[in-house]
Amino acid sequence: MNDRTVYPLGKRRTLIVFFGLMLGMLLAALDQTIVSTALPRIVRDLGGFQHYSWVFSAYMLGATVTVPLYGKLSDIYGRRPFFLLGIALFSTGSIISGLATSMEMLIAGRAIQGLGAGGLIPLAIAAIGDIIPPRRRGKWQGFLGAVFAASSVLGPATGGWLTDNASWRWCFFVNLPLAALALAVVWFGFVRRPRREEHSIDYLGALLLTGGAAAGLLGAVWGGTEYPWGSAVILGLFAVAAVLLGSFVFQERRAKEPILPLDLFRERTFSAAAVAVFALGAAMFVTIIYVPLFVQGVLGESASGSGAVLTPLMLGIITTSIVAGQLVSRTGRYRPVLLVGPPLLAVGFFLLARLGVDSSQLEVTRDVVIVGLGVGLMMQTLTVAVQNSVSRGALGVATASTQFFRTVGAMAGVSAMGAIVTSRLGANAVGASPAALSAALHPVFVIAIGLAAVVLVAVLFVPHIDLKHTLEETARRPEILEEAA
C-alpha cells in the first residue's frame, strides 16, 4: 500500500498540515492556564480584584459554548474557514488583552480569545480525521494529545517566566507570531473549492445550546465562590440552563439539520465516550488544580516548586499518549488500551488520597505520574474510537462534542471539588494549617477514585469496531482532499 493510498495528500503535505493543526491546538491549550501565574501582577497593575476569577472564566466559557457550533458548521462548510476564523478571533482577543488598560477590557479580550479557541482544538482533531485513515490515526492523534497535555501544564510556568522577565502583557503578545504561522500553514495547506450545496442552519438550536451551556457553566463557576450554592442566583442559573437545554433537545428533534444530532447518542461508542471524557476531564483538572495546592499548602513548598510537580504528570500523559497511538495504529484495536487506563487512574488517586502532612514530594511525584499514565492512555484513544464509529458527515460535530464534554467535565469537577474544600475549611480557609488543608483535600482525591470508576464502566460499553486502513469515499469529499483528487 503506497503513501498516496494511505495519505491522499501525500506524506509531505500531510506533515505540513499536521504542523499547522498542532500550532492551533498549542495556542488554545496554552492560554487555558498561561495567565494563572500572571494574575497577581495583572491585578496589581489594573486593579479590579473583584473580577479576578473572570480572567479565567471568560476564556473557558467562550471556548466551551462555541465548540459544538464549530463542529457542526465545519461539517457543512468545511474545516478551513472556521479554523481560520478561530485563529483570527483568538489573535484579536490576544491583542485586546495585551493592550488592556482595565480589568473589564482584559476580560473582554479573554472572552474573544475563548470564542476563537473554541474551534481550534476540536477542528484540529477533526481535520486529522479528514486526512488520515482510522488505522493510522492513533499515532498522529497521540502527538496532538501530547501537545494538549504539555500546553496545559507548561502554561503556568510560561506565564510566570514572561511576567518576571518581561511583562504580563507578553502572555498575550507571544501568541501572535505563532498564530500568524498557523494561519499561513492552514491558508495554503487546506485547499478549498466553492460548494453550491444548500443547507438549513439551526439558528434556534444554536442559540438554545449556547445559552443553556453558558448558564449552567456560570452556575458551576460562581457556585460556592461568588455566591452560595443555595442562593437565588445560582439556583436561577441552573433553572435557566435546565429550561434552555430541555428546549434545545426538543428543537433538535424537529430541526432539518440539527446542531448536535441526537442520533449520535444512539451510537453506543459515542454515548459511552461522552460519559468517559466528562469524568476524565474532571479527573485531569482536579489533579492540575489541587495537587499543587497540596504541595504548597501542606508540604510547604514554594509556589514555583508546587507548580513543578505537574511536570511528571505531563510526562506521564505524553508518554502514554504516544505509546497508545502507536499500539492502536499497529494492532488496530483500541479497547485493550482503553481498559488499562481507568485502573491506573484509580491507583494514582488512591495513593494521592493516602498523602498527609508527613508525605514527601517524591511520593506526590510518583502518584501524579501514575495518574498521568492513565489519562494519556485514554485521552486521544477515545477520540479515535468516536471518529471511527460515526459517518464522515458527522465527523466534526462528533469530535467537537467529545471536546465539549471533556471541558464541561473539567469545569464542573473543579467547581464541585472547590466547594467541598471550602465547606470543610469554613472560616479557616485563609491561612489554614497544613493538617487542616490536608484533611480538606482528602475527599477530593477519594471522589476522584469514583471518577476513575465511572470512566471504567463507560469504556466497558465501548464496542470494538475494526479500524479502516484507508479513508472512506463519500458523496461530499472533505475540502482538504479536493486538490488531491
Describe what this molecule looks like in 3D.
The protein has 19 helices and no strands. It is mainly α. It folds into two domains: 3-199 and 257-481, Growth Hormone, Chain: A, CATH 1.20.1250.20; 200-256. The two termini are 18 Å apart.
List keywords for this structure.
mainly alpha; 0% strand; single chain; 19 helices; 2 domains; 485 residues; Growth Hormone, Chain: A
Topology, please?
Blueprint: H1 3-6, H2 11-30, H3 39-46, H4 54-65, H5 67-77, H6 79-98, H7 103-131, H8 134-165, H9 170-173, H10 175-189, H11 203-222, H12 232-254, H13 268-297, H14 303-308, H15 310-331, H16 335-353, H17 361-389, H18 395-425, H19 434-460
CATH class of the largest domain: Mainly Alpha
- Counted by DSSP, the helix tally is 19
Anisotropy-based shape: globular
Number of strands: 0
Q: Alpha-carbon distance between the termini?
A: 18 Å
- For this structure, the quaternary state is single chain
CATH-assigned fold name of the largest domain: Growth Hormone, Chain: A
The CATH H-level homologous superfamily of the largest domain: MFS general substrate transporter like domains
